[in-house]
Specification:
It is built from 7 helices and 9 strands. The chain is α+β, with helices and mostly antiparallel strands and about 300 residues long. Helix 1 runs parallel beside helix 3.
Amino acid sequence: MTDLPPDLSALRDEIDTIDTELQKLLQRRAEVVGRVGKLKGKTSVIPLQPDREAMMMRRLVERHEGAFPKKVMIRMWREMLSATVGLQGPFSVAVFAPENKPGTWDHARDYFGSFTPMVSYRSTGDVVKAVSDGSQSVGILPMPDEEESSPWWRLLLGDEKRSPKIFARLPFGGQSNGRSESEAFAIARLTRRPTGDDRTLLAVETSERISRSGLNSALGDAGLKGSILGMWRADSDPESWLKLIDVEGFLDPSDDSVQAFKARVGQYAGAIYSVGSYATPLSAESLQTAPLIADDKD
């Protein structure tokens, strides 16, 4: 066997040392997380802090240097975070994953890790029910479709303490090698907090007399930037629509800007409900990694 060049052997020894230190740090982190869980004690609140995690991911991306891919770094951290969530208490995920739509399952795995318990559901309503009754901690659902006759997001209009709300838009750290380029929403019963760069989902009752352009104009007049993601009307009341609007910012229906929007819609607007909020996913530009520059050769 040919002996390794001294420089190469030294570099491999350095890699082994780094790997050992990384493992020690992971073990130390897990121990600290365990102490956090003990301080919290037994609680019905799921051990998940999406706001804190989103801010952590943004810091990682902002300070990252070198050629190591940012998307891979995000995936590694997501696996670590998912594992430590499991250390704090029971945690499982309900996923809308019919055979012809595998994308939501891929998003769930990317965000919640390879070993988090997950259950597949063929109905979006069953996913919402599983999270509502506490049999599952989190639900993963597809992006709304305006053509749906019974959209799942209308099931989230209840009381904040009892009804699950949207808390994340997936993927957060860029598209993976999954089987779909689609997006998904994550729902849960938990307290949502602003991260500094958020979006809010509002369901607005409107008359059929207000057009899409009229609704968008009212948003702009109230200083809001948003778009319509879904629409639904009950067969029992064809004159009234429920419209799902994705708005920039961390907002509540009682906020001045939302009330100003309602005033501008005037007689054509009814109740406004919170459907949730989420940290704005990382942009493709922020996830670009510096290319590896080879040494100059003579």
